[in-house]
Write a structure and sequence with these properties.
The complex is a heterodimer of chains A (144) and B (152). Chain A is an alpha/beta fold and 144 residues long. Chain A has three helices and six strands, in the order αββββαβαβ. With 152 residues, chain B is α/β, with parallel strands linked by helices. Chain B is built from five helices and six strands. Chain B has a five-stranded mixed β-sheet, sandwiched between helices. The relative contact order of chain B is 0.15. About 5% of the residues of chain B have low confidence. Classes of the chains: A alpha/beta (144), B alpha/beta (152). Strand 1 of chain A pairs antiparallel with strand 1 of chain B, so a sheet runs across the interface.
Chain lengths: 144, 152
């Protein structure tokens, strides 16, 4: 065996260079996954906490409706793919347009925890009018 | 004093590997701890009421229908019976979780499908609704619908 050739040189020494390589690789790994998690959560919306819910698995059939609550105006704002919709009718039309080409469309409601239930109901009504049956409420696993 | 003089003699200080490893270890520890406490997005799936009724009839199973009502102050009632918090914070949610778990077990024993309707007032806080939906997830009840009473 070729590996046995170094046996005559005495005791094997602790190699510092491969250890640093491993450490840096681990460091980059942990840095990248913490950064990815921060990007996934919209900081402007404080989602309600539901520790027993399943982790979200993103797919191309999902349409995420952000529902923001403004304490100053006491009014909710709907956002779909970066566009803001002031009323239910325009949100319904947008959902109808975006569901084209999706086999099993699903509306994910990302609502602020301070919202009133009627605002969530508005999104559900829009989804129903747009012909989408599958909905999901987005939450977070723990408070920050 | 003699010791300081001795250190001044070593002018050619090379790259020190030991403190570098210490620093890398500390940074790595920081990120490892941060990963454990990270906030991730979770989802609670549901079907809109009209389609949920259709799906239960297709399976041909008996369905066990229950109603949970949340009023505008966040008080929870299960089948018209108010849940008692017992003076504890979220004590009513613990009670609801226990009830829903029993209900899910009963459904499995009777081979019937458990369908829960969560009904709220228009002004009920969404966070309170999420608490109740979380209790249903805890019990493993997947067939649930959420409705808001019409404003007067």
């Amino acid at each position: 065996m070729g590996g046995g050739g170094g046996g005559g040189e005495g005791e094997p020494e602790f190699q510092i260079a491969p250890m640093i390589d491993v450490l840096l690789t681990l460091l980059i790994f942990f840095m990248s996954i913490t950064t990815a998690q921060v990007e996934a959560v919209d900081k402007n919306i404080h989602l309600p906490v539901a520790p027993d819910a399943k982790e979200r698995k993103p797919n191309s059939n999902q349409m995420i409706v952000n529902v923001k609550w403004s304490n100053e105006n006491q009014k909710a704002a709907f956002m779909l793919d970066g566009s803001k919709y002031e009323d239910d009718e325009s949100l319904k039309n947008a959902l109808e347009a975006k569901k084209v080409g999706r086999t099993n469309p699903e509306v994910l409601i990302r609502g602020d925890r301070d919202l009133q239930a009627k605002e969530i109901q508005k999104v559900m009504n829009c989804a129903a009018q747009a012909g989408i049956d599958n909905i999901a409420f987005l939450t977070v696993n723990q408070a920050q | 004093m003699g010791r300081i003089k001795h250190e001044h003699k070593n002018e050619d200080v090379g790259f020190q590997i030991a403190p570098m490893i210490d620093v890398v270890f500390v940074i790595m520890l920081f990120f490892m701890v941060k990963v454990g406490a990270r906030q991730t997005e979770t989802e609670i799936k549901s079907k809109l009421p009209g389609s949920a009724e259709t799906s239960t009839s297709v399976t041909g199973m008996e369905s066990l229908e229950e109603t949970i009502v949340i009023d505008e102050n966040g008080v929870i009632a299960h089948n018209d019976e108010l849940l008692d918090s017992g003076g504890k914070k979220d004590g009513d949610l613990e009670q609801l979780k226990a009830r829903m778990t029993r209900l899910a077990e009963q459904g499995r024993a009777d081979k019937s499908e458990v369908v829960v309707t969560v009904s709220t007032q228009p002004d009920t806080k969404y966070s309170r609704v999420a608490d109740v939906l979380n209790a249903l997830q805890f019990a493993g009840i997947r067939n649930m619908t959420f409705s808001v009473s019409e404003e007067l």
